[in-house]
């Protein structure tokens, strides 16, 4: 699908390309450091340099790129639709945790690769090997050399589930020449909301369309039935609060909330699921220092009658804990991270409590709060009050659960709108498939 490409690059991108090329000699040292930090897979570090042991499949290949776990999971239903069209999928991401989720949650014919470091040399190797027929970038993980090289090769490129946060927008406005040179390389930008669409248009995006948030169409996460039954047996009769995807600075507040609430609900169990499982030990230390008794799932410990706070520091088990409790605090919202996605918890029947910082999902939380499907806690005192009311009154929980389900149904449909917007590109791929098979 031909497109006219802007020729001149702003000086910022020219300098970036030179700098990225110059950093190639120190890549081994960078990889070594990241291996020590557990941020790279030692068996797959070659992928960061654009090398792969996997063979490109025959025929059209749809390349989908997302930064990490949230973006990868947002594409799950879309990937299923594309597979139904007999299209092969190459899925790239940049974190070890996202690779683990892909291995656990996606079909084996979905090829996962770590995205190459954004050096022209590594990007060229990657594109030479995979030769994608269509590139879909999720949300806002915009690597300049990856985008520029793809566009230069005339790969049709689409930004899907596009999001431009209120923090990023003013920064990019001050660098309009840079961001417009990148966004203009996309054939079309599919935005999560009207606000996101306006921001992408203001920053030089072309053919910007509001399709909605794909994360609203993501199916509820699975849970191992045997593990769920065992957990329910160990916790039967206890009131439970799940704090999902917490970040540093929030765990202290949740532990303090537990200490306040346990005076009214003596058997209370709080489950903390950190966004990054490697923080499990430090959270356990915090719990112990507060005079409470922790248990860590990563050590294969189960919550006993003596456990006050259960630290679920494992990957891919949120579906298990959402099914364990009807009350969920959504992390990333008490600190200025922007809030985590509440949709999966709502689909599994949770009443949601969150902090004031939810700009990552502003439209969703606004609708939830307005409908009564969620409650906001701006202070430690209010956090305790909101959680306490939900623990005490199942009628309130039920009402919130119904309201939350209504919001999810009203805001859904992004998957169908995204597929409609992609139809011209998918039609071209089906034509190529037919020609190849003739």
From TrEMBL:
The keyword Ubl conjugation does not apply. It is found in: Cell inner membrane; Cell membrane. It catalyses: lipid IVA (E. coli) + CMP-3-deoxy-beta-D-manno-octulosonate = alpha-Kdo-(2->6)-lipid IVA (E. coli) + CMP + H(+). Keywords: Cell membrane, Lipopolysaccharide biosynthesis, Membrane, Transferase. Pathway: Bacterial outer membrane biogenesis; LPS core biosynthesis. GO terms for biological process: lipid A biosynthetic process; lipopolysaccharide core region biosynthetic process. It holds the Pfam family Glycos_transf_N. The active site is at residue 71. Belongs to the glycosyltransferase group 1 family. Glycosyltransferase 30 subfamily. This is 3-deoxy-D-manno-octulosonic acid transferase. It comes from Bradyrhizobium stylosanthis.
């Amino acid at each position: 699908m031909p497109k006219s490409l802007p020729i001149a690059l702003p000086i910022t991108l020219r300098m970036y390309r030179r700098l990225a090329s110059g950093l190639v000699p120190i890549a081994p040292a960078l990889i070594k450091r990241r291996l020590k930090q557990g941020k790279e897979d030692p068996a797959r570090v070659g992928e960061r340099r654009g090398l792969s042991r996997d063979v490109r499949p025959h025929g059209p290949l749809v390349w989908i790129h997302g930064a990490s776990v949230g973006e990868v999971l947002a594409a799950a239903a879309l990937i299923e639709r594309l597979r139904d069209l007999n299209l092969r999928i190459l899925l790239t991401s940049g974190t070890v945790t996202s690779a683990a989720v892909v291995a656990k949650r996606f079909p084996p014919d979905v090829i996962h690769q770590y995205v190459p470091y954004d050096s022209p040399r590594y990007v060229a190797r990657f594109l030479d090997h995979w030769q994608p027929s269509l590139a879909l970038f999720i949300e806002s993980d915009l690597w300049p050399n990856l985008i520029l090289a793809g566009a230069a090769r005339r790969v049709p490129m689409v930004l899907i589930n596009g999001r431009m946060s209120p923090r990023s927008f003013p920064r990019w406005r001050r660098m309009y020449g840079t961001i417009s040179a990148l966004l203009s390389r996309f054939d079309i930008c599919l935005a999560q909301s009207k606000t996101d669409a306006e921001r992408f248009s203001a920053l030089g995006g072309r053919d910007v369309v509001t399709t909605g948030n794909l994360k609203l169409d993501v199916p509820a996460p699975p849970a191992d039935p045997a593990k769920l039954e065992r957990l329910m047996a160990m916790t039967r009769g206890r009131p439970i609060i799940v704090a999902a995807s917490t970040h540093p600075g929030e765990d202290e507040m949740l532990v303090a909330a537990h200490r306040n609430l346990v005076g009214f609900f003596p058997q209370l169990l709080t489950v903390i699921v950190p966004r990054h499982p490697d923080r499990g030990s430090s959270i356990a230390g915090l719990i112990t220092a507060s005079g409470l008794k922790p248990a860590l799932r990563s050590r294969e410990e189960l919550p006993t009658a003596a456990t006050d706070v259960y630290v679920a520091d494992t990957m891919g088990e949120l579906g298990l804990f959402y099914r364990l409790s009807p009350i969920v605090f959504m992390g990333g919202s008490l600190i200025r991270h922007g809030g985590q996605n509440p949709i999966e918890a709502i689909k599994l029947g949770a009443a949601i409590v969150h902090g004031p910082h939810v700009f990552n999902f502003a439209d969703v939380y606004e609708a939830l709060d307005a409908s009564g499907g969620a409650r906001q806690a701006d202070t430690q005192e209010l956090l305790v009050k909101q959680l306490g009311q939900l623990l005490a009154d199942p009628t309130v929980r039920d009402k919130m659960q119904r309201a939350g389900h209504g919001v999810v149904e009203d805001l859904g449909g992004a998957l169908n709108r995204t597929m409609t917007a992609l139809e011209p590109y998918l039609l071209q791929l089906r034509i190529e498939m037919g020609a190849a098979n003739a």
